[in-house]
Amino acid sequence: MMIAEKILRMFGETEEKAFRLLYDTYYKTLVLFANQVVNDKEVAKDIVQDYLAKFWVTKPYKTLKSGLDKYIFQAVKFSAITYLKEARRKEDSYQSFSREVMSEEDTIQLEEQVDIIKVVYQMIDLLPAERRQVFMMVFVDGMSYQEVAERLEISKNTVKTQLSRALKFLRKEMKDNDIPFLFIFLVKK
After folding, report:
1. Could you tell me if 58 and 8 lie in one domain?
2. Which part of the chain is the RNA polymerase sigma factor 70 region 4 type domain (predicted)?
3. How many folded domains does the chain comprise?
4. 69 CB contacts (<8 Å, ≥6 apart)?
5. Lower Cβ count inside 10 Å, N or C end of the chain?
6. What is the pLDDT of residues 138-180, one digit of tens each?
7. Is the pTM of this model over 0.70?
């Protein structure tokens, strides 16, 4: 009997032991596999760990009759490709943002921009934890309201409310600290 079939059969009996065997059998190989896609061993480890946690939570093994190997390798490959797409999207956003900042270089020196960004993040840190998390997911990670709602398991309206309150607070803080740059950054969304 192949190890994949044994693991699937074990899931029907004792999930903890089956998952432990799955982890011990496939973890290192999955990391090497993911590393071939992302070319970063630490990122590959994160991808595999995240996938295995998702595997444990969603329990896809309950519907699998065979093909565990193929299933987990395809899932890790998809996760790695998704990571690369997301990283590329973030890099593109950063490059776009950098071009905008550099076009204002005549009026604001680069050092001043760094200082402003520090102040901005200090202001963001003043937000309550959930509000700060929603703000960062939308404005820094570039996630949609729906994606944030799903990830945090809250309603889309709660995301909008938290974001609205965060922006109101930050606009007031900007005005008090005379930081027009932040306003431009915030209203772009």
Report:
1. yes
2. 120-170
3. 2
4. 4
5. N
6. 877 788 899 999 988 999 999 999 988 988 887 887 776 655 5
7. no
Q: Are 129 and 74 in the same domain?
A: no
- Assess whether 73 and 13 both reside in one domain: yes
Contact of 137 with 143, CB cutoff 8 Å: yes
Q: What is the pLDDT of residue 38?
A: 92
CATH assignment of the domain containing 175: 1.10.10.10
Q: What is the secondary structure of the chain as a DSSP string?
A: --HHHHHHHHHHH-HHHHHHHHHHHHHHHHHHHHHHHHS-HHHHHHHHHHHHHHHHHH-GGGT-SS-HHHHHHHHHHHHHHHHHHHHHHHHHHHHHHHHHHHHTTTTS-HHHHHHHHHHHHHHHHTS-HHHHHHHIIIIIS---HHHHHHHHT--HHHHHHHHHHHHHHHHHHHHHHT-HHHHHHHHT-
Q: Give the domain CATH number at 72.
A: 1.10.1740.10
| Residue 147 structural domain | 107-187
Q: Reply yes or no on whether the pLDDT at 187 is more than 60.
A: no
Residue 99 domain-assigned?
no
How far is residue 20's CA from residue 84's CA, in Å, rounded to a whole number? 28
Pair 130, 172: CB distance under 8 Å: no
The mean pLDDT value for 13-28 works out to 88
What's the pLDDT band for 70 if we cut at 50, 70, 90?
Answer: confident
Please report whether residue 94 resides in a domain.
Answer: no
